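An instance follows:
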Amino acid sequence: MPLSEYAFLVNSGNEKELDLIKNFKKDEDRMNVEISFRTSTEVSIGLEERIYTVDSSGASISSGYSISLLHHYCSKLPHDEYFFPKPSFYYSEDSGGTICNIILPSNAPINQIASTPQSSVNAAKKDACLKAIEELHKLGALTDHLLPLQNSVLEDETLLVSSDSGSSEADEDSRGELHEMLVPAVLKESWTNLENCVLLYAYYIKFIPNPEDRSYKEFALFVKSPLPKEAERMELDLHLSRRRSVMTKLTPSGVAEFKREEIMQAQHFQEMFFKVILDRSELLSEFVTLGNVFLSSSSSTFYLLLPVILSNCENKVTVDWGIVQRCLSSPLFKSPVAAAKIENFPSDVCLHLVNGCRSIRDIENSLVYATHKRAFYFITSIVGEKNGYSPYRDSGTLNHLEHLNMSGIHLKYPEQPLLHAKPLFKLHNLLHNRKPEDSESNELEEYFIDLPPELCQLKIIGFSKEIGSSLSLLPSIMHRLENLLVAIELKHVLEALTTEKCQERFSLERLESLGDSFLKFAVARHLFLLHDALDEGELTRRRSNVVNNSNLFKLATRRNLQVYIRDQPFDPFQFFPLGHPCPVICTKETKGTVHPQSSCQVDHAKSEVRCSRNHHWLQKKTISDVVEALVGAFIVDRGFQAATAFLRWIGIRVDFQGSQLNSICAASKRFMPLSSLLDIGDLENLLGYQFLHKGLLLQAIVHPSFNRHGGGCYQRLEFLGDAVLDYLITSYLFSLYPKLKPGQLTDLRSVSVNNKSFANVAVDRRLHKFLMCDSCHLNEAIEKYVDFITLSPDRGLFEGPKCPKALGDLVESCFGAILLDTGFNLNRVWKIMLSILDPIKSLSSVQLNPIREVQELSQCYNWDLQFLVAKVGRNFSVDAKVNAGDVPLCVCSSNINRKEAIRTTAHQLYVKLKALGYAPKSKSLDEVLKGSPKNEAKLIGYDETPIDVTVPDIIGFENMKLQESLVNDFNPKTRSSKKTTSSGVSCISPGSRPFEVKAARGSASGESHSRTARSQLYEICAINCWKPPLFECCKEEGPSHLRSFTYRVIVEIEEAPDMILECFSSPRTTKKAAAEHAAEGALWYLKHEGYLQ
């Protein structure tokens, strides 16, 4: 067994407590020494005690300690304030001694255990408890260390074990790890070492502005390998300022042939324009050398973006080599010697610039640098009607010459015409949605200024503003294309691989909600069918171990999914294509310096450095969220079967067999005796579904406090029903509100899928009237809540008396039963959900968790909110304090449940704050829903074939076969008296009886022939939760040496309160023999009249 670790918190400076801790450590060391040096591994057990040992772990327990362990196990079963699970003990006498019968709680995997005859009551109790412990361990309800299952129990076939598993899940979720991002394979293929002729696939990029207020130069993408079909016609809507947008479309345009010198020119042109838009500081010098970056390039992508000329049809383009060569012929890129040569131009076709006299043809449609403004400009034209003496637009009566003189700038050639110039743009992330819903696009007039030529340096000839407009879009286009190509390499699902921080117009969060819901349903179904003996609490724990973030992270990294994740917003200045290599070289030795752990913080996106290996920090929760989002993407794109295949690939088992379902349906017959206690038809009419296996419906209404039927309750069905309802409602909301943001979808889902919403459905449908329970307190709480709901139609979600959890559980368990009875036909369950859950479906009263509401309100106004919780007796008292402006507010409430007490207090405080006029600045969820467009709700992804559930044989209930009786054949010649009670009410005939008597398990082995009739009668009464049989000596006669005794046994059958069975023995010479004969008569009657078969 793993060693336990303890942390003691003591007051500093308290010597008494410190000495106590020291004594604890000394005692621990002494015990460790004793254990280490003991000479025998035998456990000292009393002479009368047996021991049970687990071979795999060596854990053992004696019959004496088994009693406390059984009580401990029962206390760990699911329970609430109305139901406290504990074992019940019944004793009977047998010829071989005392027999102890244990009745376990209804939600335990076994219901009853009987001991072998023992010499005393205590010995019988020990023997029965040890047998119970052995059975529970064999069923998996106890671990190999003979302890109740805990959250840390993992299933080897589903979960992975990590070397860092000692850290808590919360720490793992918040800790970031450094991972590389995958570079799309189609963009990695290089042509650097190829021969003279290079063939590249061309894809024309079409720009469609809205409104058409800008002109764009045609560009095309050239790559060595063809783009996949899913990407070759990518469409992308880029959002500009003032609600303007540009729709971009890729079009395959054949194959282009490049000679070696053309490839060099194309690479130089790409390097040049990336310097302009990404690192223009390099252009400030008089001479710039091109091509050096390709000699030692660390680029991870290889593609070209070049201006093109369209042919008559768009599927064929040619490179506009005229523009490429004209730009590269600029003096900026010539050698100093060549650039120093002075060309003679006629005075009427040239202008004086900072760097010499240049022809007007070269100046128009070029890029210049204005030295007095320290900025780059596109020159669109020469303004012949304006010169230095023309009025300056912002200075009133001053002209350009006078305005510049005020700044100490003196023009030598004021008579020269001015240059009409547009400032060089600043790159933005155009993937982020900056366009409000339902807003119209407005034209934005371009901004131009007039510049004196002699204050400008000519940088790039032929580099027009149309080229600049196109270049401002290309980085965002290529970033999206990279993401798409990465996604295609995984499974054609882009949405699942971009997170909210990417600041693009879609992300994984909506799909994550859907995938999370399906994952929980699929795992819940698998576990429910695989472990038919585990209780609801243990099923929940095992599901949590499978779907928690820590396990999903381990499974994802094992499959290397993290390399596909894009977790950063597109930063144009961290864009490093071919021609603009990343300056930060990252190696194994320098990785720790380049990416220090301190950069992995909440705002790491702002400070994170992009390196040559595409490293980025990822939170573990982000990786686990991507797994859920991928599940959601498979459901939306391909359906349940594809999502199941993906889960199987990643390492999560969700498969099941139809035979498992049929076994569970067949086993539900054991609940059929309860059908006499209610009208099943009425309940089926309320649910709108006729059951094939009515035992499932009966099980769905049995509260765990009800234990008069041989065990079993609704909790397992509740576990399954909760999972399927969660998915159905998530699918409903996901499809109904397509424009709802991920956070709003999550809020709406939490409002809809909760116990209180389901409880209100149970009351509206009158399902509570069919609940079987043996708790007076629960019945009173239900009646109180039902009265409040009935009399308060405008009730708030957090008002009135406490809602009994059993009401919501009842709805979930009924849906779990329907799901099983339909053979997992979600289409039928979907239709029933739409008809039954109308209060949830209508979403007429959307109320968020009051704790969250009051916290968000406090954050909005920068208030200090405090919740002070104290235990007062059995209740929790909660004080909520906040200073609302200058008004201190304090609200107090109490409840037996800590969470409920905090929720109630938060709700009361929120009501007070709203009464004072405080309201959140953002729209409420109710307001958001009213303004959100709606689609028709639909069940998403279901494509499974329902299982053919075998219909049970239709037989009369009175003729149902039960387990073989413990009772031996009674000799009809033996005389036994049967009489009615003093009230004169006759025994109920078998044909009209409303119940069946259950016999103990395992009685077919013939064991009953060695047991007395009294012990068998005691056991039957215990199994059926009747009072123990009452044996009385009603007659003594004869002299003392020939005395005879007549015994009477009384059996009260609780299912028939107007019947009391009395059986009398024949006179016997001993009291024991007379009592035995009376018991034989009672057993004979029960069998002879058809109650036992």
Observations:
- The CA atoms of residues 988 and 1059 lie 7 Å apart.
- The radius of gyration is 41 Å.
